[in-house]
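Me: I'm a chemist; would you kindly supply a protein sequence with its structure tokens?

Assistant:
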Amino acid sequence: IGGDHLGPLTWRDEAEEPAMEKAEELVRGYVSAGFSKIHLDTSMRLADDPKTERLPDDVIARRAARLCSAAESAAKGEKPVYVIGSEVPVPGGATENEDSVAVTKPEDLKSTIDAFHKAFIDNGLEQAWKRVIAAVVQPGVEFADNSVIRYDPEKARSLVSYAKSIDGIVLEGHSTDYQPKEALAMMRRDGVAIQKVGPALTFALREALFALEDIERILYPFSPEGGYSYFRDTLEGRMMSDDKHWKKYYHGGEREKAYARKYSLSDRCRYYLDDAAVKDSVLRLIRNIDATAVPFGLISQYFPELKESILREDGKITAGLLIKERIKCVIRTYR
């Protein structure tokens, strides 16, 4: 199990010392809980860092080594493996729609690895360095509110060529969400062996829940026992009452923002799925769907990619099955 973007991101508005102390506690917690792949992300500026200059590699590496020490001290039994990097894409996708993104330069990757190696050795982490398995790079892929930048092997050629000369470290690509299956295959071929995905999975979950709510209304022309789920309305209500998770990502007029809250590729609504009211509406939706048989015609209408596999199912078609199968469709593009 991997821990992603472990560092002081959450406390970036604080000065280095208090932010790093909290990040150390975060990392120790992950390792103690059994997470064995630790992404050390100290690439963000903190409150007392210069605001107009790029954070130097040696500062990023020094902070990462500090977090590595915390992880090593918390490990019981088998020690974790580590992912490093100084050119780390923003978690959750870009905040603006872009036409292109700069691919990591080979010299920048070399500088990063050299800086991290020095910081680890200076801090007595020689054995931990042997367990650094990957470096995060920008291979030229990104997604935002309403755009996807596809992988271009030609633009990544220099990075890929240099990466092949690095012993024991593979490339990790973030923001690979929504890439076509063939693009992901080309990335693997080119050495981007670890491909991060997140919002595309929760986007598929949201798609499935919206589809199930449509089915719910068709199956129950009149309110079912216990009432309708009102999933869309509940989700929208929670997002409107607390906009901290989507405000900086969604732009334009009220119509554009209303669309984005439901259908944006950034899928900021995922941060509200753990809200108590939203969870209650999801549970009610699942109960309503599972309380009656879902006709094959509705499955074909709302889950067309699943109809052949559904025909092969022997048991009852449940809401949980439909949700999981929609998510698995995304996962299969990574195989």
Q: What stands out?
A: Strands lie at 2-6, 37-40, 81-84, 132-137, 142-143, 148-149, 170-173, 194-195. Residues 7 and 23 are 5 Å apart (CA to CA). The chain has two domains: 2-197, 200-334. The chain has a mean pLDDT of 94.
